[in-house]
Amino acid sequence: MEEQLIAPCGMNCSLCISYQSMKNDLKRQGFHKKYCPGCIPRGENCIHMGDQCELLAKGKIRFCYECEIFPCKRLKTLDKRYRTKYHMSMIENLEFIRDNSVELFLKEEEIKWLCNECGGVICCHNGLCLNCDLETLRKNKKYRWKEE
């Protein structure tokens, strides 16, 4: 995992279905998923927050926790959706980065999202490894996290 794949909102873009689809070239394998190289690499600062935050839109801050109103209402709403649907918290990610470092965050993320089968990365949007679990995704294109 790379630092440039951590978006200002706390999203780890390397866990995203659009990033992983691009990385694994899923279109070539018959999937119709949009591709995204990540917020920072594509020059967007943050696709989740940049359109509603002047500081992010103008690149004045690297992470949302640098803002005096962190966490803002928009980030709280986004965080709630990601905690509920996708087993991750952008606010917790940002607090960890703020309190520890982005380097330690990346090390923790590599452990947390590691596929035990192949060593790849689990996708936060569906809980699947796109190296090992393509057949599950092929059978159910809207697959989202096993019930626990």
List the helices and strands and how they pair.
Layout: H1 17-23, H2 54-57, H3 73-86, H4 90-99, H5 102-112, H6 134-139
Helix pairs in contact: 4-5
Number of helices: 6
Strand content: under 5%
Number of domains: 1
| Proportion of residues in helical segments | 25-40%
Give the end-to-end Cα distance, rounded to a whole number of Å: 27 Å
Radius of gyration: 15 Å
- What is the H-and-E element order? HHHHHH
- Secondary structure category: mainly alpha
Number of strands: 0
Q: Which spans of ≥5 residues are poorly predicted at pLDDT below 50?
A: none
What characterizes the major β-sheet?
Answer: none
How would you describe the shape? Answer: globular
List the quaternary state of the chains: single chain
Mean pLDDT level: 89
Describe what this molecule looks like in 3D.
The protein is mainly alpha-helical and 148 residues long. It has one domain (3-139). Helix content is 35%, strand content 0%. The chain has 6 helices and no strands. The chain is globular, with a radius of gyration of 15 Å.
Defining traits:
148 residues, mainly alpha, 6 helices
Structure in a nutshell:
The chain is 35% helix and 0% strand.
